[in-house]
Design a protein that fits this description.
Elements lengths: L14 H14 L8 E2 L1 H8 L3 H13 L3 E4 L3 E4 L4 H25 L2 H19 L3 H19 L2 H8 L2 H11 L6 H16 L3 H25 L1
Antiparallel strand pairs: 1-3, 2-3
Helix pairs in contact: 1-3, 1-8, 2-3, 4-6, 4-9, 4-10, 5-6, 5-9, 9-10
Length: 223
């Protein structure tokens, strides 16, 4: 099992929520692998808590589709299938196209400067071979665009896919083979936004997600 350790208590969050967030983060980051067995007793011992809040957390993870519970077979981290990837990223491609088009029309100069800084930080992560940092900057880049779109409903819909999208990002950027492609695509999106070319920015954002989808599926089919 992954290196789940004793949790740090949070004065502002119930214990069950701390455990839930800890396990969810371990799954979406890839620390807990798809198909890995989750045993309540072992998790409780590693985290230094009782089984009850662990059981509650696992049930919530099942509701989010991150865990599967099968009679007589136990509880496992949900596998990622090609169909899962296609379903989620098809939706995300459409959402990103709309969000980026709106952001190109509505983004303020300070937002564009923020995106430029994130882009530079992404480059710094690549130079240091900091893949986890690069993934965080990739996430941040897109979150800023969604915020700049100025549409709370759109942001909420995208937020419902957040954990699944993060799992796919880990697959896509788990080594540095695609990092340069992400760099080029982000640069092109940012340039279109700076030039207020909303249609091009939206098109590039959609292609960015489609490219990720194709690459991840190719990798899975080679396994």
């Amino acid at each position: 099992m992954a290196k789940i350790s004793k949790i740090k208590m949070d004065d502002y969050m119930p214990l069950r929520d701390v455990i839930f967030n800890t396990l969810r983060d371990a799954i979406v980051s890839g620390e807990l692998k798809p198909g890995e067995r989750l045993m309540e007793v072992t998790l409780a011992e590693k985290m230094g808590v009782s089984r009850t809040p662990v059981r509650e957390a696992v049930r919530r993870l099942e509701m989010e589709g991150l865990v599967t519970m099968t009679p007589r077979k136990g509880t496992h981290v949900a596998e990622i299938t090609v169909k899962d990837i296609m379903d989620v990223l098809e939706v995300r491609a459409a959402l990103d196209k709309l969000a980026t088009r709106l952001a190109a029309e509505r983004a303020k100069p300070e937002t564009l400067r923020q995106l430029e800084n994130i882009h530079k930080q992404y480059i710094a992560c690549l130079q240091k071979e900091n893949i986890s940092g690069a993934i965080k900057k990739d996430v941040e880049f897109h979150e800023v665009i969604y915020n700049a779109a100025g549409n709370a409903k759109l942001t909420n819909v995208a937020g419902n896919l957040r954990e699944q999208i993060y799992r796919f990002r880990v697959l896509y950027l788990k080594d540095f083979s695609n990092a340069e492609e992400v760099l080029k695509e982000h640069r092109a999106i940012l340039k279109a936004m700076q030039e207020k070319d909303a249609e091009l920015a939206g098109k590039l954002a959609e292609e960015h997600i489609v490219h990720q989808q194709e690459t991840i599926i190719q990798r899975m089919e080679k396994k």
